[in-house]
Amino acid sequence: MDYQRKIFYSRRRKVLGGKGIKPLIEDMINSMLEGSCKNFLDEQYPYKCITEWAKTNFGIELDRRKIEGLEPEEIEWTIREQARKEVSGDIPVTMGEYLEDLEDPKSWDLEGLAKWVMSAFGAGISTSKLRGLTVEEIEKVIIEAAREQIDKRDCSPLRTIVQEGFGLRTIVQWANSKFDLRLEPEGLKDLKAAEIRERLRKAVDGKYDQREIEYPVEFAMSMAYGPQGVSIYGFQGLAEWANKRFSTNWAAEQIQDRTPQAVYNDLLELSRKYHEGFLAEQVAERVRSAGSMQDIAEWSNTHFGSGFSGESFADKEQAEAMTLETGREFFRRELSSLERYVLLQIFDSTWKDHLYAMDHLKDSIFLRSFAEKDPKTEYKHEGFRMFEEMLETTEDRVTNIIFRVRLEAGAQARNVWNIGRTQKDEVGQFAQAERQRAAATAPQGEQKVKTIRTEEPKVGRNDPCPCGSGKKYKKCHGVDK
Description:
mainly alpha, two-stranded antiparallel sheet, 65% helix, elongated
């Protein structure tokens, strides 16, 4: 645990400091891309999916080696045949739980047995059909019913899995969903795994760069065009933000007289201009024309709030590099604050879950001694494995939401788990103010109270039960009603 605490709190301290957040996010993204490409683009991936599918839908442990190179029809036959054989062995064993005394039919729990057959195989067998039968006959009836259900199960998903390019389609779908991309499998069809990974990385990097350009502008626009409507005082704050950020000469009255879309487009163009090279040119020109290191430090402090002094730089080359780095951090300050909040939320929640799981492990690890294993050694191995899983979970959660979460100016951050409800239109978050203003001016009519009605039809006591057991509702799920 000391090693785990050292690793975790060292990462958390870096996030609290607010520096180096972008490289941390990029490392997480690259780690997820590396692991997913290795998994999805593996030649054995379709067979892994088939074995998982067979376990979920047929309850069997399928050996992957038995289906490698087989046609879809042959794979389907192999799965059904193994499922048939296993039910023939499992059913007699489970029947003993309901037919305890084989010589006394009065002690048999036929109703419980019928419910188990329904839940395990989806086969509806009434207790009246089982009454009067011997144990062997009951076993035969249940096995036949179970095999019949096995033969009826749909195996069409197998054809999708075994189709050529299944792994490629899966990873493209995964990347589009996770990073909000718009990739098509056809554009990556003839590439090797390393080339596909590089294409995905470039696409994600482009998406991240675009977010660095757009999000600060969206955040600033929410000062004047927030979810609560247009803020008159927000126009002054937006003008001051634009003047300090892009050295413009805007006034609040100018913004107020323009449409939100026009203001947004101008700010977005300025943000893109600085992001795509103008900032580096401006810093280089200022360093070249500066008379001393103190002049560079004062200019950087005024424009970027860096806190440098003349002694902070050894030469102009270092001064240019440090000033440019500070300027880039300044221009993504809003995004860095949001990312810092997301990271701390996820770090803390996953760490608490991990500590809780470690407590449970500590309480139960002594049971390993019955298998002649050292509990201390097992605790270390199992704890390290759980810690690695926690780090992977952290990366997965962060990369899931880091491209979607938003925060308005002057408001508390949303819970990061509710970001799925966030909507974004052509103007961004501030467009909601336009909709609210239009709604406020619309004619208001008297609202009628709607009668609450249940959508599900009422089931009569003598009607067949909706669960499919074949019994009347009053003798099945309606027995207590």
